[in-house]
Prior knowledge:
Layout: H1 2-16, E1 21-26, E2 35-45, E3 48-59, E4 62-68, H2 70-76, H3 96-113, E5 131-135, H4 142-150, E6 160-165, E7 173-175, H5 189-192, E8 193-195, E9 205-208, H6 209-216, E10 219-222, H7 225-231, H8 242-248, E11 251-252, H9 279-294
Parallel strand pairs: 1-4, 5-6, 6-10, 10-11
Antiparallel strand pairs: 2-3, 3-4, 7-9, 8-9
Amino acid sequence: GGLGDVLGGLPPAMAANGHRVMTISPRYDQYKDAWDTEVTVELKVGDKTETVRFFHCYKRGVDRVFVDHPLFLEKVWGKTASKIYGPTAGVDFKDNQLRFSLLCQAALVAPRVLNLNSSKYFSGPYGEEVVFIANDWHTALLPCYLKAIYKPKGIYKTAKVAFCIHNIAYQGRFAFADFALLNLPNEFKSSFDFIDGYDKPVKGRKINWMKAGILESDKVLTVSPYYAKELVSSVDKGVELDDIIRKTRIQGIVNGMDVQEWNPLTDKYTTVKYDASTVADAKPLLKEALQAEVGLPVDRDIPVIGFIGRLEE
């Protein structure tokens, strides 16, 4: 969805502006271009120590890094028919907290341990002078681990975290007792503490990952200036985090688009290619082709309105 589009398009745009950019995501599949770096690290997740491997590819100026672990790959890879976040739509995997704790910890290790030399402009590990952009609740533990594990040791002294909200409706609410799974000091408890009126996943007091992400990050962002206003406008629109966001403040930066991907001169899905000078001639032809394809009356003078939005209850 939207997050996928942003992670596809924003990093190459940042790289084109001269930044060294790495994305870190779970390895849900055997991505054909991503190779095993053979770098492994051990991370404490719940009451176990897990080993993760990093896979890597370099595309359009961006280091694409994938965190390899059975928690990610075995659930989804080709054969299980599972979804990324659960066995079926609307159902969570029971170990989601452990999975995303693993992702957050791996993301903090990667800039220091991966010796990447793909670009002629940059070589070696990224080091500690970095900004982390954490997206949605799954990455909300990152600023917490940064403060709990690294900063006390003098590591990542100047590193900052921007937390970006793509969809406020999904917050990572779990049973309050589950705080123990996260291996965070008790002083973080208040950042997670949350009470709502719902019985899912348990009644009453909960932990809320997104609340902690908002409170523990250096800056809170969202996907448009309008959405930023909407999130603080009411309890409904901010899905009960409106007061927290009002306190931390939020900045809306409109989602851009990837002009390489969405280029009408090279678009493989259209029969007629066009640019700014030929758009007036091409659009009526493309409109007729679309009308024919979807079974509408073919008439180049009728307006066709397209709507892109969330389809959910």
